[in-house]
Description:
The protein has 712 residues and is of the alpha+beta class. The protein has four domains: 8-156, no CATH class; 193-273; 294-515, Ribonuclease H-like superfamily/Ribonuclease H (Nucleotidyltransferase, domain 5, 2-Layer Sandwich); 524-616, no CATH class. 38% of the residues lie in helices and 13% in strands. The chain is built from 26 helices and 20 strands. The strands form five sheets. Strands 15-16-17-20-19-18 form a six-stranded antiparallel beta barrel. Strands 4-3-2-1-5 form a five-stranded antiparallel sheet, with helices on both faces. A hairpin with a 7-residue loop joins strand 7 (305-306) and strand 8. Helix 6 crosses helix 7, helix 6 (193-207) crosses helix 9 (246-256) and helix 12 (343-354) runs antiparallel to helix 20 (515-522). The N and C termini lie far apart (160 Å). Mean pLDDT is 84; it is low at 680-684 and 686-691.
Amino acid sequence: MELPRNSVWGLKGSDLAEDGLYRILEIMLDVTSIILFPLNTKSVTTRPFAVSIEAFTENVKSRNASKAGFNLPSFLLVAEENIAKEHITRRDKNYSLIEGIISDRGFIFDYATKKRVSHLAKHAKKVGVDRKALSRLLMQYWRYGQDKMALLPAYNNSGGFGTDKKPTDKPLGSPKQPRTVAVERSVKFIVTDIDKNKFRKALKKYYLKQTGLTLSKTYKNMLIDSYADEVRLANAYGKPPVVPTLKQFSYWSKKIFSKDEFIKSRTSENDHLRNKRGLLGSVIQDSYLPGAHFEIDATVADVHIVSELGSQYVLGRPIIYIVVDRASRMIVGMHVSLFHASWRAARQALSNCFMPKSRYCEEFGIDIDDSEWPCSHIPKELVCDNGEMIGLQPKKALNPMTKLSFTPPYRPDCKGVVEKRFDILNKEVIHEFLGTTRGANVIRGSRDPRKDAIYTLKEVTVQIIKAVLEHNKSIFADLAFSSPLLVESDLSPNPINYWKIHLARHKHELQAALPQDVISRLLPPAQVSMTRNGIHFNGLYYSNKEIEERNLASIARSSGQWKLEARIDENTTNHIYVKLDKNKSFELCYLSPRSRMFKDKSMYESEFIQDWLDSKKELTPISVTSIDDHQNRHHVTKNAKKRSYNAEKITFSEKTKNVRQRREDELQATTNILQPKIQSNKNIDITPSENRSDKIVSLPVGRKRRTKGESS
């Protein structure tokens, strides 16, 4: 059994000594004894004692004695270079006083076993100190580990540090000192326990609340509540009142309540958890693997945009959706739209997250390989707000794919990774745009940012995509401490390297996404019509090879149009996904040439045109001219009816008789055309080729039909 010198042992239920901690000072094999020194005693003249090695060993075997630990005071745990010179001098002097006897084994055994030890008195006389002072130094040396550092002076508790002073008739602390002799300061107030209770009540009543007053205002209210009589009396005598000062009130408020109590009482629980709690954890404490947690959130972009079809029309500020992998900090999906934060916009961001990015970037004129943005996977868990994602539609669409995890209300810190990405995008890109609001920090009287808006939704989206690609290649120091794979492979600690190396080593929690499944589940559904001009949606027309081969437009022209189910990618008008047959998957249909004005634009532009057209119709639902014309027609009709009523009554046959002749008479009467006089055929020689219209040709008369009842 190992019994090292200077080790600490705990005795419990032993017959050797009382329960407590003991230090082994010496092991004396010649007398088979162990010298123990008690550590729990508070006496300054405690002596060590001796026990037999055999008895101590038996106690260890019977578990009445076991190894233990003893914490040294903080003033001894200091590096040599941080100790004050006067303390080192005092330590070395104390050590020199006992240095001659601490190495004397005979003295230690006699001191532990005999009541009187003459050697101690002789040594005290030799070094010129009192015997009791020497005994106290020995006890301090043995108690704190038999080392020179044990003799450092314990000045850390000087003056009763950490203990409240009992008030007396004499004020504590330095007295009030006037700056000049001409002014006499008031008597210093002595704070008693009664005053401390008044302080406590005032602090609870006025200060320790979410909407609490300031400390100075609390002090004034405390004087009104508790010291009003003293103030009135002093005012009557014309002398300063004997009341606590603001400095005393501030000092004792920190003594009565801890800083933590001040922080928790003056803020709400949510604000404390979000902005004031200690950040001892890490976002990757649950898992450092890519795909374990994706975070999704939306924010209003700090920039105003204009329409592509008319730059004079300001469309407001777009909404940015971001999806981030918590472990790698990789931005795995995004969506920029004019819709407010809703499931309609969130599903677009998720579909972008789960599908390859090369086609998405191509729609905005950015050519990349899938390896430059290698994110087309479904996570194990999706962390989202307790808002647009909590409905039945998101659960039906996403639960078969991944698990939804909702953060508590008003706790954006629970998804701090995606919140930080918004801050990065604002600083790197958005706040440099013309028309930016710079986080809504608008100074009164400054220029309205809407006046400077010049960028379209597509242009803003292009710049954000480029910023995302740059972000995924940026170095983040935290990633170097998240996983050893980056260091082992000598890769820069950026999101794309973190993502790729973990996927290459098969250390991830991602699953592949089927494009058709993502299209059918996540893209917004819509009803489209098969018409003679192609598939019609929102004023636009689409077609593809299968529609042309099957002559579906011709059938719609002859038999009438019909409805089809579709999925809309609101990022572009260039294509939509249509299910041409009930039992088939969605087919890609491209924009028709008749809708070429909307090529390479977003779906929001077509909706803008619809709104613009509706606004024009609402502006002039009927023209003023049409109103005047309608009233004039009504007046003419009324006059005509009146004239017809007053006309001579004739039969219908007389009214319709000789219409041609009446037309000629009407022309001669209402026009200035000179009509040639018609002469007889005898006097005018007309060739057969001239004036054929003036000849009268007699046609053969048919046999008169007999009516029923006539005789033959």
